[in-house]
Amino acid sequence: MFVHAMASASHPIVAQIVPIRRCNLACTYCNEYDKDSAPVATGEMLRRIDKLGELGTSIITFSGGEPTLHPDLDVLIGRVRERGGIATIITNGYLLTPARIKQLNAAGLDYLQISIDNVQPDEVSKKSLKVLDRKLEWLAEHAEFDVTINSVLGSEIRRPEDAYEIAARARQLGFHSTVGVLHDGGGQLKPLDAARTSVYERIFGLGSGLFSFAHLDAFQRNIVRAQPNQWHCPAGGRFLYICEDGLVHYCSQQRGHPAIPLERYTHEDLLREGAKPKGCAPFCTISCVHQTAMLDDFRTRPRETLAGIITRRKERDPRWQTPFAVRALDWMFLRDSRARNMFGALAMRLFRAKSG
After folding, report:
1. How far apart are CA 262 and CA 259, in angstroms?
2. pLDDT tens digits for range 150-165
3. Residue at 356 is within a domain
4. Sequence-ordered list of residues with C-beta below 8 angstroms from that of 196, at least 6 positions apart, any chain
5. Counting beta carbons within 10 angstroms of the beta carbon of residue 32, is it exposed (0 to 12), middle (13 to 18) or buried (19 or more)?
6. Cis check: omega of the bond before 258, within 30 degrees of 0
């Protein structure tokens, strides 16, 4: 299904869908939860997943709220897999136990992301390394799916150096790690001060693969420097956000646009909304949409996109040498037009692009 979506712009690459708006935490910076919503009925969720499958959606991410509060999350994950999609979740991790992790394995989960805000819990966030470290150890021991730990930088986070400690711990446990920049209520940039920028550079220095989105993508570098990004946001087309009411929005921070019921969303809607310029794009910090746009660049401009990634990697470390596998990739896939249709599947593996 991923190759199908990469071959045509009329299919979504990623859809985030909310099975429950309620959360068991109350992080003060978050605007994506409430404390009392009931889970979306399982039958309705299955119909929405089926509709996303009909639209050709490659990756379906369950977010919230806190998706692990939905009593039939495993059933929903299983339906995504039955439809040929990639199933991922974004969770605060609080409800993870060895038994729950094994249930997620059995359900067919492909990828899980946890965002950890600090080392010690405080009044801003209880998503702390102190509370969650044992959960991470259980994931390292039992998870058969990929795991990414996201640390956070922003004015609301009291100790920016915590982000480095969290990233280092994630690497120690064998997980992928990313770092995000907190946004305002519209998904817009809140610039980092000098101390937080310094921490970001230290995290970058931990090293990552050539194709790591959060660390090597020009979007993130501009965000840290409070510089605008010149790009086309594909939300509404290649990226969808489906709220608990079943409406399609551009993203979690642009709810209300276009607010069309998913059951009535068509390929014409995908093309129209995905092509629309978004005024919020230059200072957007919604990395999952950036990632989707970057993947789409591989469909339309594979050579230029790969060349740009390599160039930015060399700018960060002039001593870095292009690995043989990447040189071979350039030769075999990017210089041979007959092989370009095969590139989507390879890009999926290299980027581990399973989350929003």
Report:
1. 9
2. 998 875 778 889 999 9
3. no
4. 153, 154, 160
5. middle
6. yes
